[in-house]
Specification:
The N and C termini lie close together (about 10 Å). The strands form three sheets. Strands 2, 4, 6, 7 and 9 form a five-stranded antiparallel β-sheet that branches. The radius of gyration is 21 Å and the shape is globular. The chain is mainly β. It has one domain. It contains one helix and ten strands. The longest helix is centred in the last third of the chain and has 5 residues.
Length: about 180
């Protein structure tokens, strides 16, 4: 029987991977504090309550997120957090939170769990000036009074370029069987 031979990594460029000098990916957390729900929602649509333009000059992958409910509201406001094309919430989604639970205080994880097969896709918050997904928006999709709700949002981010690499990194050799 042939034994697999692991190929040597010969094209690693220390200065070009990740954060340019260490080969690591830069991780950052951003906190958006003092959020609430709305007392009413316009009939037939979604009310966009908050928005934030990507403050970084690069695309950021949202690895994880937590929301912290400090004051509950038992009414169902169907609050979503996702990416949108502009401050008005054009093409807004629910990639970060889809119908947050706000009937209990605590810390809640809110991004997609990684699937066993590696299919848990993470959202990319595009850099300012792009035509899509450069805003995070918070919207209330149900006509309910959830104005008592008080919460905070925390997002774990990594620059997309740290994960995607650069064009001149080279190609690693494949594993061969001797």
């Amino acid at each position: 029987m042939a034994s697999p031979v692991i190929a040597a990594i010969t094209t690693y460029k220390h200065q070009k991977i990740g954060a340019m000098t260490s080969g690591a990916a830069r991780e950052q957390w951003i906190g958006i504090r003092g959020l609430s729900g709305a007392s009413d929602q316009d009939s037939g649509g979604n009310d966009h309550l908050y928005y934030i333009l990507n403050p970084f000059q690069q695309d950021m992958v949202i690895l994880n997120g937590y929301y912290v409910v400090t004051t509950i509201d038992a009414n169902d406001g169907d609050i979503d957090v996702g990416l949108a094309d502009d401050a008005a919430g054009t093409n807004s989604g629910a990639e970060i939170i889809d119908s947050m639970v706000h009937s209990a205080t605590g810390v809640f994880e809110c991004t997609i769990a990684q699937a066993v097969a590696g299919t848990g896709k993470k959202p990319i918050w595009k850099k300012p000036g792009t035509s899509t997904d450069s805003y995070i928006t918070v919207k209330q999709a149900t006509d309910a009074d959830v104005s008592a709700l008080r919460w905070h949002l925390f997002l774990q981010l990594v620059p997309y370029e740290d994960l995607a690499g650069y064009d001149d990194e080279g190609t690693q050799a494949a594993v061969s069987v001797a």
